[in-house]
Specification:
- The complex is a heterodimer.
- By secondary structure, chain A is of the alpha/beta class.
- Chain A contains twelve helices and 15 strands.
- Chain B is α/β, with parallel strands linked by helices.
- Helix content of chain B is about 20%, strand content about 35%.
- Chain B has helices spanning about 80-90, 125-140, 160-170, 195-200, 220-230; strands at about 5-15, 20-30, 40-45, 55-60, 70-75, 95-100, 115-120, 145-150, 175-180, 190, 210-215, 240-245.
- The longest helix of chain B has 13 residues, at about 125-140.
- Classes of the chains: A alpha/beta, B alpha/beta.
Chain lengths: ~450, ~240
């Protein structure tokens, strides 16, 4: 038998064994309340992710290959943008999306040091960090309690003659963006970046988030809607911006060859750049000050199968969130329920609860009760970013107050709604909360 | 602007324009690509395995319409060893690998009233054929003025005339100039000699609001680009190049 055919045969055998391996591993036994943890998030996968990963391992291509191609094309199609660029994390995606706006290739639309960027202090740090790192001025605005995103009015009120961009997240999957905001940005010549890391599948006015901005980002860290371990993506339909993002991702180079390939443009040794000698190897011509933020082929292989499950995951998150909302509604006098602006359909990242200031219990007491019952909780990321040691002395401006942002710092938590939660786990959550609240009724 | 992919195709038709110029029609075996007129693909003649490096390949402009869902064409002229291999090894039924689409040589007028000027030297006509084929296939009127300047060694090498005539029905403001180096007798339709960039610019009503697309040999492009920038004072943003090495 030829070696090519033999390899195919062995590959098939390996995949079969992987499936058998998974079937043994997945039998973990029934959930035990107060013993097993109810996680706030986690990987949900089956044998398909494992076999895809092993397929990629057997290819041993390592850098961008067939799984990259498939994932990027599938993700772009899923979201409804022209292009998706796979990167090694959502944080890297945010860095690249913002960095792209500082490219000299954008000429008079280039973001420069001192330009103002409207964003949130109630944020994950790596949404705000690129603004600081590129020496733009973050202008922080407050959020609404319940939705944890700002209103369009609040965003508009913060715009000045120095404003050049709006860059914020669909926090916990709740969309902040609308066609009205997009129109406002176009009218005022502002860049709009959507951090969609929490919001794969969220919709505003019937349209998926990630499609409104000049660029958008995704995260594939295990807590997110789909995972590849570490991973992220930059999304967009503006060809010029995508070229810039790709260059910044790939060491800042001008060349667009895939890994391990040469002379895709056909002019590798026949162009002139800067003051380099004519014909300088295009693979080593740098048009940006960039990074290497690429993902591996193995990550892409996992992502290919995860993306196929995205709709199911999103649907289950919505069901779990709705069910939690119905259970928590009876305690509305003491807690602010998680909500969303009109005309939006969040793909919920978690269920956010804010303990009202006049509640007979504190957030700490509530969290302790949940954690004691082995129900994992999280604060709403940073709370107020400006209160963290790293941000105490950054140049910034606050428009209005951050009253709600400060409240969530002391009073807000979230619990999980991810598709790995079973009905038994959710029952345990309802029961634990009911037992806690009973003390105060 | 979709992601480039690697894809397999099968040769379904071969058209011989001359002993050195052939067009090949391919059908997708698996995945198909989405591309824009003016983009190119890489063609390889060797086996491809995803666990190995991409084999030797060369870039060729796509000569057919993006809307032709199941097939596409490229046109190749004999240049050297690789094209010799293509012309000798490709036959109907042969499956090969390609990758793409690539390139930003895409027709995008700055304004809809701007004149789009296509300058094609020899098989440099191929990226424009994709544009013409799309118009002919979609039957959508393209109202921007279009000027085609096409040059070849002799009139028999002015290929794709039938396609251009089909497309002109949907381009109400279309003009074409043909240059042949070896003109046989007085033929009013053809201008004698190589493409004359000065002649073209002088025949435009408003060169400064025209966008030029130059496709052909590197030497031709270098000379024309220099003239357009230095003599016709055209901004670089209005000049797009598809130069071959």
């Amino acid at each position: 038998m030829r070696s090519v055919e033999k390899k195919k045969e062995i590959r098939t055998q390996i995949m079969q064994l992987v499936k058998e391996f998974y079937s043994l591993d997945s039998d973990e036994g029934a959930f035990r309340a107060n013993v097993d943890w109810v996680r706030y998030a986690g990987r949900v996968f089956d044998e398909k992710e494992l076999t895809s990963l092993v397929e990629s391992s057997l290819d041993f291509w390592l850098t961008a290959g067939r799984f990259h191609e498939e994932f990027e094309a599938s993700l772009a199609s899923y979201i409804g943008v022209e292009k998706a660029l796979l990167v090694n994390s959502g944080s890297s995606a945010n860095l690249l999306a913002f960095a792209a706006l500082t490219s000299p290739k954008l000429k008079d639309k280039q973001l420069k040091p001192g330009d103002e960027v409207i964003t949130l202090a109630a944020a994950f740090p790596t949404t705000v960090n690129p603004i600081i790192l590129y020496q733009a001025l973050p202008v922080f605005i407050d959020i609404e309690l319940g939705s944890y995103v700002p209103t369009i009015d609040a965003i508009e009120a913060a715009i000045t003659s120095k404003t050049k961009a709006i860059f914020m997240a669909h926090t916990m999957g709740v969309p902040f963006v609308t066609s009205e905001l997009k129109a406002l940005c176009e009218e005022k010549g502002l860049w709009l970046i959507e951090d969609n890391c929490d919001g794969l599948g969220s919709k505003s006015e019937g349209k998926l988030t990630g499609t409104f901005g000049d660029l958008a980002t995704q995260s594939f860290y295990p807590a997110h809607h789909i995972t590849m371990g570490e991973g992220g993506a930059v999304l967009g339909s503006n060809e010029d911006l995508i070229k810039i993002v790709r260059s910044l991702r790939d060491w800042g180079r001008d060349c667009y060859c895939a890994g391990g390939e040469n002379n895709t443009c056909g002019r590798r040794f026949s162009q002139c750049f800067g003051s380099l000698p004519y014909g300088y190897d295009h693979k080593y011509v740098y048009s940006h000050i960039g990074y290497n933020l690429k993902a591996t082929e193995m990550q892409a292989a996992i992502g290919v199968e995860q993306l196929k499950k995205a709709n199911g995951f999103i649907h289950t998150r919505k069901l779990n969130h709705d069910a939690l909302g119905r259970e928590l509604k009876k305690y509305e006098q003491w807690i602010i329920l998680h909500s969303a602006p009109v005309n939006t359909e969040p793909s919920w990242f978690g269920y956010v609860i804010t303990v009202r200031p006049n509640a007979p219990f504190s957030r700490s007491e509530f969290v302790n009760a949940l954690e004691a019952a082995r129900i994992e909780t999280r604060g709403l990321f940073c709370g107020n970013l400006l209160r963290h040691p790293a941000y105490e002395n950054i140049a910034h401006r606050v428009h209005g107050t951050l009253e709600n942002t400060d409240l969530i710092t002391t009073n807000t938590l979230f619990i999980g709604v991810y598709p790995g939660l079973t009905s038994t786990m959710l029952e345990h959550v309802y029961l634990t909360i009911a037992q806690f609240m009973k003390k105060y009724e | 602007m979709t992601s480039p992919i690697k894809f397999e195709v099968e040769v379904t038709q071969i058209i011989e324009h001359s002993s050195d110029i052939f067009s090949f029609e391919f059908q997708y075996v698996g995945q198909r690509i989405r591309f824009k007129p003016g983009q190119f693909v890489h063609l390889s003649l060797d086996e491809f395995d995803y666990s190995k490096h991409w084999p030797e390949s060369r870039p060729y402009s796509i000569a057919s319409a993006p809307s032709a869902l199941n097939s596409f064409c490229i046109t190749i002229s004999r240049q050297g060893p690789f094209t010799n291999r293509i012309l000798s090894e490709l036959h109907c039924g042969k499956k090969i690998w390609m990758k793409g689409p690539y390139g930003d040589f895409v027709v995008q007028p700055v304004n809809v009233t701007d004149t789009v000027v296509f300058i094609a030297g020899g098989t440099g006509i191929t990226p424009f054929c994709s544009f013409f084929d799309e118009i002919a296939l979609s039957k959508v009127f393209f109202s921007s003025p279009v000027v085609l300047c096409y040059g070849a060694k002799n009139k028999n090498l002015l290929i794709y005339q039938e396609l251009i005539n089909k497309a002109r029905m949907y381009m109400p403001n279309f003009r074409d100039f043909y240059f042949v180096e070896d003109r046989e007798g007085p033929e009013d339709r053809y201008l004698h000699g190589r493409i004359n960039i000065k002649y073209i610019v002088n025949n435009l009503s408003n060169p400064c609001s025209s966008t030029f697309y130059l496709s052909g040999p590197r030497e031709m492009i270098a000379v024309f680009k220099s003239y357009l920038i230095n003599e016709a004072n055209l901004p670089i943003e209005r000049i797009f190049l598809d130069e071959w090495v």
